[in-house]
Every structure is written in structure tokens, then in C-alpha cells.
Design goal:
single chain; 436 residues; alpha+beta; Alpha-Beta Plaits; Glycinamide Ribonucleotide Synthetase, Chain A, domain 4; OB fold (Dihydrolipoamide Acetyltransferase, E2P); 9 helices; 20% helix; elongated; binds adenosine-5'-triphosphate
Length: 436
Amino acid sequence: MVGIMRVGIDDTDSPEGMCTTYLGAVLARRLRREGCRVSEALLVRLNPNVPHKTRGNAAIALEVEGDPDGVFALACACVEELADCSAAETNPGVVVAEHPLPPAFYRRAVTGFCTTGEAIALLDACGVRYRGYKNGRGLIGAAAAVSAVFSDTTCELLAYRSHEERGRRVVDRESVFSAEDATYPHTWDSVDRANDVVVCVPHTPDPVLFGIRGESPEWVHAARAHIRSQEPVIEQAYLTNQGTDAHLLPGSIGAMEEGRSYLVAGTVASLPLTGRGGHVAFDLADGGHAVRCMAYEPTRGFRTVVRQLVPGDGVVVAGSFRRGSVNLEKLRVCSLQPLITTRPPVCGACGRRMTSAGLGKGYKCRHCGGRSLRPEVSRARRTLSAGWYEVPPSARRHLAKPLVRFTPAELAGAEGRYLIADCGETGREETGSHPS
Ligand code: ATP
């Protein structure tokens, strides 16, 4: 009997090879060959902080019309053939659901942690077909992919090399830059211009040849047309939650949980310091609590922004809370603390610089004996402007929303989750634009 269903798959790869998105692309073709209609392919990124992920914590879901028993059998056969089950950490899961699963499970899996037992309890309660291999952990991602409802979407076109060609990846660098030139800002993160590197070609031993990210299938295909490379064996355009900040929760300092990712407002409480390895750290405070914020070395030029913060600046930061620190993905400078410097004044009588007359006693002129109670106060110009700043494409997490996707209202901190309600109010006059 023909029905409409979602097929979810996860945990098929290992550090040595394979990729669940490749398996999804192969399965979509095999399903079509068997007469099924595959109407959508979803690439579902889940919590980037889970300990068992191989690379980017991706699961896939296909929307399929066909015979559910046949689809389930084909999906399981595909996993049994292609998953790298020899690796201890590869524990595939397959789910086929003919009716929607509660989206709350997806929300938990993208913002927090789930257990295999919870996934199985959900699948049993919903009465759907599923199969877990080895310890069955992949059922978490497979169930999350099947239950996913995206509030925002982007697209990624993935091109894959053949198994035989696993040793090489030939993608013409200039063609990738021209693809981005021709389609930015409708596609993004194919290259990192500031650091002069190609970002869309991985260096890992998986089947991905390159991946083009953009706002629609039309735009990623338009960019793809520019790229010259070895011949891919398969290409698949996925609808995805990448680049949407789906992992970010509204947070407050002192109430963040390990392994979750937050948008959190506060006041810079210490001068940023560059430590070993070039990592930059500062403290952010709010409501009597403080948290360390980290801009790691791979965030390159973003650290230059962070180093310009001074205590008193009001900021909103976005990033994962891990081992007591927020690992910065982007930040908004809401308010800039005026940089006030004081020094002894110039003597009104003889024009020479005075010196301190002692604690609380003002200033005196050594030359003519003139006196003054007030220092000379000057306001240094801040080199930083208010606005959003982000890590470069080469350091961007899959789920992080690039600023190029922000609406003008979001850039102004005036809309939705990016609304700036409660960071400091100092120095409002020094507004400016964000750098991207
Ligand atoms: P690939 O991109 O090829 O799928 P990966 O980086 O996504 O590799 P996996 O090998 O799939 O990593 O491993 C991630 C494991 O973590 C899977 O077993 C998945 O079911 C599980 N998982 C995903 N999200 C969560 C979560 N929120 N809580 C607990 N486990 C999770």
C-alpha cells in the first residue's frame, strides 16, 4: 500500500570515511529507481556539542511516497551496505514514520541532549518502524530528523566523489571564488575571502567533494554551475537548518547548562587577554554572575574585534557553553563604554603642565605656584563601532546564522530573538555599522 512518510537515518560514518548525507543521496536515488517519489531531502544538524559526533552532527530525512515496508527494507539495506559499522563509534539508526513525530524531540536534539532510551520510547509510543544497529545510538538523530520542523531554512548542494577516488579531491580554486563572486549574498561560505581560503571543499576522508550553501536550490545550482572539478558521482540538494541559529537558546549568565548554545547579554567585565595559542578571553557579567567568553585562534580576525572591547561595554554574545566558557560564534556590541583618561591640567597662569599636589589635594604648578582642583579629562575615540561581528567562514559552525542572512531589523538588534533588551546603555552616541 502506498503512503507518504519520512525516512530518518543517522550515525553511519566514522572518522575513516562515509557520510550520512552521502548515504541519504544514494538512498534517494535507489528509492526513485524503485518507483518511489522523493519529494524532499532534509539535512538536519543537531546539537554541535554532543560527545559522540564524528564531524558535524548531521542526520538526514527523506520525504517519500511509496510502500512503507518496501521503503523501510530499502533504507535498512542501504545502511547495512554503506555504513562504516566496523568503527566502534558507528551505531546507525533508521526510522520510517508515516505520520509526524512530535517536533519537541527535534528541538531537544538540536538545543540539548537526548538518550537512546528516550528515542526508542518515542518511536514505540508513536508506533513507527525503526531499526537500531549495534548500540542503536543513531536512533536519536534518525528520530530527530523525522520529527524536525524548521522555522527557518537554507539549502546545501553537496557533490560527492566515488569510493575509488577517495584519495583525491580536485576542485579548481578559482572557479570556487568565481562561484561566490557570481552568487553572493545568495550563497555564502564557499570561500573565506579575508583569509583567502576555499571553505566548501573538506579535507576529511569522506565522500564529499564540495558543498555549496545558499538561500534556495536555484541559487546553489547557479553557484555550482561555476565550479570546475573532478566528475562527481552524485549531487544532492538538501533543505537544511544550517545557517539558522536553530541551536541557540536565550540565556542568562549563571544559568547556562554545559553543552548547550546561547544568546546572552552582559557587560564586559575584564580586558580581553590573548593567551597561549592566540586564544582571546574576557569575562562577561550580568546580575552578579560572570562567564568567560573565548575567541579561539581559528576565529582569526574576529579576535581583533574582541581585543577592542573594554570593561563596561554592553554586548550580546552567541555561542556554546562548554567547560565554563562561551565559545564565541558572533557578538553584538550594543554600547561602548567611553574611554575617559585624566591627567594633571595645564597651569592657567604660566601654561605649563601641573603635577599632583597629593591625594585629594588637586594639582599645583611647580613653576609659578598656581593651583587647580580639577584634572584635565579627555575622551579617547573608540576604534570599535556598535553592531554585530562574526567569526570568518572558515571558523563558522554549520548551524550558525551568518550575518549576511540577518534582516536589517535583526542587524539593528530590534527583532525577534536578536532583540537587544538589556545590555548596558553607555556610549550610545558611538553607533556604527557591522563589518560584513
Ligand atoms: P555524519 O555527519 O556523517 O552523520 P556526525 O558528525 O553527524 O556524522 P554521527 O556519527 O552521526 O556524527 O554521531 C552523532 C551521534 O550522536 C549519533 O549517534 C546521533 O544519534 C547522536 N546524537 C545526535 N544528537 C544528539 C543529541 N542531541 N543528544 C544525544 N545524542 C545525539
